[in-house]
Amino acid sequence: MTQKRISRRGLLKETGLAATALFAGTRPLRGLAQAVNSQTRIRIAVVGGGFGLDFHWHEHPSCEVTGVSDLRPDRRVALQSRYQCETVYDSLESMLREARDIDAVAIFTEAPNHEKHVRMCMERGLHVISAVPACLTLEEAERLREVTNRTGMTYMMAETSYYRHYCIAARELYEAGQFGELFYSEVEYYHPHIGHTISPLSFHEGQRTWRYGYPPMLYPTHSTGLLVGVTGERFTEVSCLGWGNPENPALKDNHYRSPFNVASALFKTDRNHICRCNVFWDGTAEGERAQWFGTKLTFYMPGSGGQPFRLQGPEAPEWTELPDYWGRIPQTLTHNPGHGGSHPFLTHEFVRALLEEREPAVNLDAALNMTIPGIVAHESAHRGGEQLTIPQL
Ligand SMILES: NC(=O)c1ccc[n+]([C@@H]2O[C@H](COP(=O)([O-])OP(=O)(O)OC[C@H]3O[C@@H](n4cnc5c(N)ncnc54)[C@H](O)[C@@H]3O)[C@@H](O)[C@H]2O)c1
């Protein structure tokens, strides 16, 4: 295992990547996997053995897993096995006290703990990739901004929709100007019963989990990410309506005081565009999906209702299927554990961003632009759909 502490400037010098990296912006670069000195590795710790098991950090050629942690013993064992890592900690807190061989932490803990856990890691001089959402309140968003600015640590949000291959395709068509003006989008995330009393995820050992009654618009990023991840524009205003299934007891006494398990928001953006954004925990539709409407091209993602993939427009590419993006990541990482093939792309982007000393694709700015609009939309739903301004942090 590499014992060397990562010095970011030193790394750039060592790998000869400085010139390209510093001007790389937030776009993932092709073919750099081969260019990196094979001795240079990011030492990462993985915390949270639920969703945190669905990645392959140890198989990235420039990354090694030097610690794993979960509060639950069964999940500690699962993490050790997944990442072939002997070093295990019984909590993030003990890891931060004891560990001396970590450069970055992958935080896959509960949504209400993300902001606190990110802060703890950054205060300790560690870079962070965090599961979605970035945070649950505007105050937490401000604290994330403050700690990231003060410590200079790198933040990335592991928003899977950003690297869904349909989203990669839409982003690249947009960047090539093929949409014309992309004036309207419909973005949606449907996950029936999550947060309901009938869902096993709502309870652990008889106790309610954070998912019990969790408000849909506090989990907006799989939807909002499908616009931010394509055009990069900012949400500026929102009016949102919520609905709660009266047969769901979790809506009567949850920790969030949320009566909604369905929410539909209409956003305005800084480019004066319109975005209809749904997050539903009820009904029968499933999955994450978008349709993007431009003056020259309309792009329909396939959906659980049998909606086909279609590109419509006089100059639309004649694709029957998507281009193959798998060649952009190291071959050892070419697993598809779900979420549209996104996990290895997130892994590669975070590792590459650290090595190249650049902002990752879903940096804090993008993460907050995906997260804060939902926080304000939830407030709008509480106020019966009142149109509210979205603060730009
Ligand atoms: N597509 C996606 O992007 C996607 C999919 C699933 C889950 N998620 C996100 O991933 C996160 C984890 O989801 P999950 O379903 O695994 O949640 P979970 O509640 O099942 O797991 C969280 C784990 O974190 C551990 N943990 C909490 N505090 C800790 C601490 N101080 N030290 C060590 N371990 C600690 C808990 O013991 C628990 O095992 C959530 O934020 C969720 O929103 C994202």
Q: How would you describe this structure in keywords?
A:
alpha/beta, Dihydrodipicolinate Reductase, domain 2, 20% strand, globular, disordered N terminus, binds nicotinamide-adenine-dinucleotide
The domain count comes to 2
The neighbouring-strand order within the major sheet is: 15-14-13-7-12-11-10-16
Please trace the helix and strand order, writing H or E for each element: HHEEHEHEHEHEHEEEHEEEEEEHHE
Structural class: alpha/beta
Q: In the CATH hierarchy, what is the superfamily of the largest domain?
A: Dihydrodipicolinate Reductase, domain 2
Percent range of helical residues: 25-40%
The residue-averaged pLDDT reads 90
Hetero groups bound? Answer: nicotinamide-adenine-dinucleotide
Supply the number of helical segments: 10
| Structure summary, number of beta strands | 16
Explain this structure.
The protein folds into two domains: 8-160, Rossmann fold, CATH 3.40.50.720; 161-322 and 363-389, Dihydrodipicolinate Reductase, domain 2 (2-Layer Sandwich). Helix content is 28%, strand content 20%. The protein has ten helices and 16 strands. The protein has helices at residues 8-15, 18-22, 73-83, 92-98, 114-123, 138-151, 165-175, 221-231, 343-356, 364-382; strands at residues 42-47, 63-69, 88-89, 104-107, 127-130, 155-157, 182-190, 203-204, 207-208, 235-243, 262-269, 274-280, 287-294, 298-300, 310-312, 388-389. The strands form three sheets. The protein has an eight-stranded mixed beta sheet, covered by helices on one side. Strand 8 and strand 9 form a beta hairpin. Helix 5 packs parallel to helix 6 (138-151). The two termini are 40 Å apart. The model is unreliable at 1-38 (pLDDT under 50). Bound molecules: nicotinamide-adenine-dinucleotide. The site of nicotinamide-adenine-dinucleotide has 24 residues, from helix 4.
